[in-house]
Amino acid sequence: MEKLIHSVILEAGDIALQFRSRLDAIQVTKKGAKDLVTEADIAVENHIRSRLTAATPEFGFLGEESPETEGKTSRWIVDPIDGTHSFIHGQYFWSISIALESKGEISHGAVYAPLLHELYMAEKGKGATRNDQTIRVSDTIDLASAMVGTGFACLRAELGDNNLERFCRIALRTMDQRRFGSAALDCCLVADGQMDAFWEQHLNLFDVAAGALIAEEAGATVTDFAGNPGLNPEAVLITNGEILSEMLELM
Ligand code: 2AM
Ligand code: CA
Fold first, then answer.
1. Residue nearest to atom 9 of ligand 1 (CA)
2. pTM score, two decimals?
3. What is the C-alpha to C-alpha distance for residues 9 and 2, in angstroms, rounded to an integer?
4. pLDDT in tens, 53-65
5. Nearest Cα residue to 49 out of 116, 113, 98, 94
6. In CATH, what is the architecture of 143-250?
7. How far apart are the C-alpha atoms of 112 and 114, rounded to whole Å?
8. What is the whole-number distance in angstroms between the Cα of residue 83 and the centre of ligand 1?
């Protein structure tokens, strides 16, 4: 399974990069007021879907850009381009995310950021890697020394509870903050210690299914904003463990 995911995600990266090389000519369509989809999102998802479905016809498929198909006990969960706005603007921080869920539990996760040349992978119980090297969360012990990240998907979804107050509250207590624009990649940045924590609300499962497993396998805690363990895309808090309680107080 790992080999299949590895080849498919690298192929998907090549397709995305071909579109990236002619960004001026790329077709962008609106799914919602600020919710964009490009030809690249669709071509990448079509490729991933046809490759994975051919190799595992018995599995279901949940992707951001195509209708869901039911599977028996396993399904692929795919975001073809996480960080579509970054992609459209020619920026670096976007990624491709593939997860495999079996009997309700994520068993494999891969996140690939083609322009950063970073491929993160994890298998449940077997640790996490970045470009084949084992990774671990940071050992930062207090929020005052921490680098944290967040995202504002909710603003794009035009919801009332927009994370700005929480961001200001937390920003006053940390060393520094980042907002990279790809939730899948943000999870991986906590996994390899580049950030000490990441939170975001109102995400979709395909944004974070792979990233959360990668983070967990690298030693991160994955909870909701109340500290309940496990992945809840509505409220995702991923930390290096050391700063979990300080973060929870501020959520
Ligand atoms: P996307 O680029 O695949 O749409 C950035 O804050 C994160 O929010 C990204 O993972 C982004 O994924 C996601 N996101 C963007 N718009 C969203 C929306 N309208 N609803 C939910 N999530 C969204
Ligand atoms: Ca996404």
1. 182
2. 0.96
3. 11
4. 999 999 999 999 8
5. 98
6. 3-Layer(aba) Sandwich (3.40)
7. 6
8. 7
